[in-house]
Amino acid sequence: MQRDIWSYGDDTVGDVDLTGYTVEATDGDIGKVDEASYDVGSGHVVVDTGAWIFGKKVLLPAGVIDRIESADERIFVSRTKDEIKNSPEYDPERGIDDDYRGDLGAYYGQPTPVETRRTDPPL
Q1: Mean pLDDT calculated for residue range 43-58
Q2: Which of 33, 71, 76, 100 is found 20 to 30 A from 16 (Cα to Cα)?
Q3: Residue 54 domain boundaries
Q4: Which segments within the chain are labelled E, that is strand?
Q5: Cβ pair 77, 67 in contact under 8 A
Q6: What is the 8-class DSSP label of residue 10?
Q7: How crowded is residue 123: how many other Cβ atoms within 10 Å of its Cβ?
Q8: pTM of this prediction?
C-alpha cells in the first residue's frame, strides 16, 4: 500500500520545529524551511528557495521527506531539484485549497480520489 503523500513517515516529527532546517534534494540543497504543518493528513513544509529559483517558495508534501537529521538541522527529500522546480506553483496568497492539494498530490505520485475509487475498467 502506498504511503499517504501528506503524512510524515516518522511519527515523532511533530515534536521538532522544522523551521529553518536546510532542505536537500537528491541532487543538492534547495533552500530552508520557512514554515511547516504537522496536521494529520495535510503535513507539509514550505521551502524558501532563495536565489535558486528567484526567491520563490515551494510546498513539499510530508511524504516526499526521506529523513530528518535534527542534529544537523537538515531534511532530505526523495526528489530532484528539477522535479521540485517543476512542481505546481505555490501561491501563499491562494493558500492550500483542495484543488492545489490534488494537483500537488498527483504531481508527486499520489492517486487522486477518483483514481482510488476505480475498481474495474469501464465496459
Answers
A1: 87
A2: 100
A3: 11-111
A4: 22-25, 28-37, 44-48, 57-61, 65-69, 74-77
A5: no
A6: S
A7: 3
A8: 0.83
